[in-house]
Design a protein that fits this description.
ATP binding, 6-stranded mixed sheet, ATP-binding, Nucleotidyltransferase, domain 5, ATPase_NBD, kinase, globular, kinase activity, alpha/beta, 14 helices
Length: 370
């Protein structure tokens, strides 16, 4: 039986909402029917980034921000419904990532916080909304992230042997697909666009370095790169997950102080680009990958894509986009949350314990009925 779902994604970059309308049927049929991306106003984007980096957040700020996020989420969902001449009753459920404000799976009291006022989304759309997917995995002793590798494993079964999926958003993560009876591996490699974007914003009026043009004008700083690559996170064994709570401007300033030599800001951008590329490729080499399929906003950074391709080729690894496997890289994560909603509705598990470290398979998500 075919069912319709909407997946919503608001990622670490806080640039907007990605929405996917998908048709899903078992066992392995997934079809994207339509997509829609709506950017956040710049003032709201800055507000989301400030919330994520603040040590203390007021109850009012959390409540109000969740209220406004629900408006953006609902508008995206309603656009897809109207565009495809559907009725709300025809959509089985919305799967919403929400927006991550804090993620602390390794604290003495593990928790994760994704806001979005999902009850309001259900109210505004008239559609069941499923959200807060990470919390159940954390309750079961897992990292709560990344969750998308379960979808990668399900959707990309046509990938050749020794393949991995690499998503480059604010944080980069890798999924080594389950092949030859080995468990699927997946975890956050480290920074994707988050450091690059924040550094660029400090020196320009632009939210990101379009195509890596500014970084291209800089020079690689080997000493700075060596110190950053030696950060404890990169040698920490999986399962592991991270976010802006770790990789942020405070983190970068710590390493800049260790390298007091004068460097122009574009050379630091160039070195941050190299950091992202090398951290991804080092993990691909660790798992003896021969094919990398890329997705996420980072693939649009021309310099980053070139560095990934060059470093991969030097290791005998071929790179391509997930579109070659049938799903555009711009819509993989939003599609994953449509699929996760489908799993929850059908009482199917959505996590991979081998990836998150949870003690077992769990049905994920909190359900807000229509």
């Amino acid at each position: 039986m075919k069912s319709l779902y909407i997946g919503l994604m608001s990622g670490t970059s806080a640039d907007g909402v990605d929405a996917v309308l998908a048709e899903i049927s078992m066992p392995f049929q997934f079809r994207v029917l339509d997509t829609f991306a709506t950017p956040y106003p710049e003032h709201f984007r800055k507000h989301l980034l400030e919330l994520a980096l603040s040590e203390q957040v007021s109850k009012q700020a959390l409540g109000e921000t969740g209220f406004y996020l629900a408006g953006y989420f609902s508008t995206a969902a309603r656009h897809l419904i109207k565009q495809n001449k559907l009725q709300a009753a025809q959509i089985t459920a919305i799967g919403s990532h929400g927006h991550t404000i804090d993620h602390a799976p390794n604290s003495q009291t593990p928790y994760t916080t994704q806001i979005g006022n999902h009850a309001r989304v259900a109210e505004l759309t008239g559609i069941t909304c499923i959200a807060d997917f990470r919390s159940r995995d954390i309750a079961a002793g897992g990292q709560g992230a990344p969750l998308v590798p379960a979808f990668h494993q399900w959707i990309f079964q046509s990938a050749p042997a020794h393949s991995a999926i690499v998503n480059i958003g604010g944080i980069s993560n890798i999924t080594v697909l389950n092949q030859q009876n080995k468990a699927c591996a997946g975890y956050d490699c480290g920074p994707g666009n988050c450091l690059l974007d924040s550094w660029h914003q400090q020196h320009t009026d632009e939210p990101f370095d379009s195509e890596g043009l500014s970084a291209l004008q800089g020079n690689l700083l080997p000493n700075l790169l060596a110190k950053m690559v030696a950060d404890p996170y990169f040698v920490k064994p999986a399962p592991k997950s991270t976010g802006r709570e770790y990789f942020n401007m405070t983190w970068l300033q710590h390493y800049l102080k260790k390298c007091p030599e004068t460097a122009d800001w574009k050379s630091i951008s160039r070195t941050l680009t190299e950091l992202t590329a090398r951290c991804i490729i080092s993990e691909a080499v660790r798992h003896k990958c021969r094919h990398l399929f890329l997705c996420g906003g980072g693939v649009h950074n021309t310099l980053l894509r070139e560095r990934l391709t060059s470093l991969a080729e030097a290791e005998g690894i071929q790179t391509a986009l997930t579109s070659e496997l049938g799903l555009s890289g711009d819509w993989v994560e939003a599609s994953a949350f449509a699929w996760l909603a489908h799993q929850t509705v059908n009482k199917l598990t959505g996590n991979l314990p081998a990836v998150t470290g949870a003690i077992g398979d769990r049905i994920l998500g909190a359900v807000y009925p229509a």
